[in-house]
Amino acid sequence: MVTDEGDDRRPAVRPTADDPFVxxxxxxxxxxxxxxxxxxxxxxxxxxxxxxxxxxxxxGMVQKAPCYDAQWTNSQSRYSEMCYSDLPYLYVGxxxxxxxxxxxxxxxxxxxxxxxxxxxxxxxxxxxxxxxxTHWLEGSPDLAARGAMSQGQLYADxxxxxxxxxxxxxxxxxxxxxxxxxxxxxxxxxxRRPWDAALFALSPVLLFEGLINWDLxxxxxxxxxxxxxxxxxxxxxxxxxxxxxxxxxxxxFLLGGLLVIWGRERRWRDLATAIGTGLLTWALVxxxxxxxxxxxxxxxxxxxxxxxxxLGSAWLVIEHMAGTTYTHHTINLWSWILFGxxxxxxxxxGVRAPRxxxxxxxxxxxxxxxxxxxxxxxxxxxxxxxxxxxxxRPRWRDQLIWQAGEIYYFASVWWYLGTYLNPxxxxxxxxxxxxVGIRCAAQLYLAVIVVRDILMPEYDVVRTRPAGxxxxxxxPTEPGRLTLGRAPGGG
Length: 491
Prior knowledge:
α15 runs antiparallel to α20 and α22 runs antiparallel to α23. This protein has one domain. A two-stranded antiparallel sheet has the order 1-2. By secondary structure, it is mostly helical.
């Protein structure tokens, strides 16, 4: 085997000549690209992938249409149509209908809105900005009149209800921009493999789960960090990790991957730069919230600390099966112990690998471990894995196997909450336990494939090509199955 890694002078790898799954489907659109196939002067790979992302995300918005038509009331349609979203329910409940600053420590605001935003500051800032845009588009409604109304009256007010729908739409437009930015960044992670980003652009996970919560904000930061690291820009890598961590905690785990990669390469200065800029960025983003309301800023940390086992987690299934409830302290302790052991295992794997692993590979493995042992595993958390997974193992077959498990769980959790599949005679929700198990098994499958690619780099399709191949693309044969000393497809 010989490597193409880092050689940007070669032409881009063509999916029909690289991925067996794509090659098998290509006859429906004319067959694999030929050796002398040209390229369209305007439809470059990047533009095609951005168009794919836009269409996929638009279909995701259509999928949420039943709930939009029902005005996101507490009806069963949010479960039967699987269109639930957190966004509209927080518009009134967190004070955005009155444009209250999420971290205000005003006694009046906290008495009126005792429930503080339980998310990191990046999400709160974004939601507040979306509320501001919503009010601007609505013509700046009279907030003083709303101050005389109770929360119940605000929820029932037709003007506020219309704003709630607009607030959801404004957030969605921003999420679409984040998805486009993430797709653009992923096209540049591996210069010769821009089509790998199509796995993100056409992802079922992106379609069904992109509008449940604000997770796409962090996804864009992670994709950007992968791009910056691939371009040897440690300062920018750190900035994007810091921004991502201010939105969701998990981008912080990318620093562990950088520690292994740059540690093996003795690039201690770059590592220090990334860590320093990351911490500084995170601190600067958190400063306004911390200074304006320290107690309100700390709600995210205390809320998660005292949270019990929740939907999607193996801990909830264990509690159901055992007929008991574990304290949050017990779950926190064992979750961090198991995650710590998992991280040690990933670090040993990265240090002892024949070649330095890629950041997407290590990042994917660490985040998978965190999700598997976490006490909360919401459906949209699959988005956390998406950019890392498609860059770690850019193969359609493996991605579809993993995402099939995610979509199976996505449907099951809503039907579970809607009590549609309860046993006729009562009893345990075994179908939901099965869905959690299938989801975990699908993730472990992809994790095993990534571990294999790290231990046997000849299977890593990003870094290798068959010996004797004359071009940057080759017949769709998996590594390790080629006849030595003979060009693939040769006579």
